[in-house]
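Q: How do we represent a protein-ligand complex in a form that can be generated token by token?
A: Start from the inputs.
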Amino acid sequence: METIVSGARPTGLLHLGHLHGALRNWVGLQEDYRCFFFIADWHALTTDYQSPDGIMESTRAMVAEWLSVGLDPARCTIFRQSDVKEHAELHLLLSMLTPVSWLERNPTYKEQLRELSERDLSTYGFLGYPVLQAADIIMYKAHRVPVGVDQAPHVELTREIVRRFNSFYGPVFPEPEVLLTETQRLPGLDGRKMSKSYGNSVLLADPPETIDKKLSRMVTDTARARRTDPGEPEKCPAFNLHKIYCTPEEIREVSEGCRSAGIGCLDCKKVMIRHVIDDLEPFREKKAYYEKRPDDIRDVIAEGNRVAGDEAAATMSEVRSVLTL
Ligand code: TRP
Ligand code: SF4
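Then emit the structure tokens for the protein with iron/sulfur cluster bound:
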């Protein structure tokens, strides 16, 4: 069985963008791969080192939501990066052989420097972000890394680091391949990419009334200023959700209704909103279940840490031996 590794920074409550961008995919991969999914709390520190409080809390909350979405600790290993100290050791060793120029030309690095200009990111750790990520990935000798396009350069860099490592010390690590999450583009309530920082997201944990309220005011085709104006579904941000959630008949009906001005936007959205709310019902139930059992979450992380730790220890003894350490 091939191995999958992926991680996410503990960013707080999950929204629909996370669900369709990554998590649905992860849940499916559990069937066919040996999977490691972890909370990248050290990576969170690369940008939030000045205010680290809350990282632990978000870690537990995020694991609870992962389980509620359908990650199953019986079929995948869920752990916390900072609990497997070998990641730090491998990061250090990889940093010895990674040229700085590879890191400086990394597009994600350049973009983040620009986007997060209010924070001081001229740190050693931030430049080395992808080296730590490479350590995360190759620690488990991953064959595939399911990530969105924005993370593809990091996996590419991981491959370059692996080639360099193997050329010096022999074939220890497989070159991991990116498994691009085919993102159904999921716009937020305002039509921009759904993101916590834009305040335009529908949280998986939102109660049905909130989901209804939020989606009812989601932007639609701007050409439909009045109820009598015809619209074009393909130009409507809300319609992306119809495409994910509605039945083919419903999609056909609302599309026709939209183009002929036979249906109003609110009625059109109602059809989709009902599905979104129903679809998240099992999530809400499981989440309520785990909220009453914080020890279960702790146990899942502890058990994952143990499994990942054993694997990491084995990899590191091999690494130390080829480096004659
Ligand atoms: N950098 C990833 C992100 O921001 C998180 C991450 C850290 C990761 N280590 C990883 C993803 C290893 C995949 C594999 O989303
Ligand atoms: Fe969008 Fe539906 Fe309104 Fe058309 S009728 S613009 S598809 S919400």
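The first strand starts at residue 3 and ends at 8. The beta strands are 3-8, 34-39, 76-80, 144-147, 177-180.
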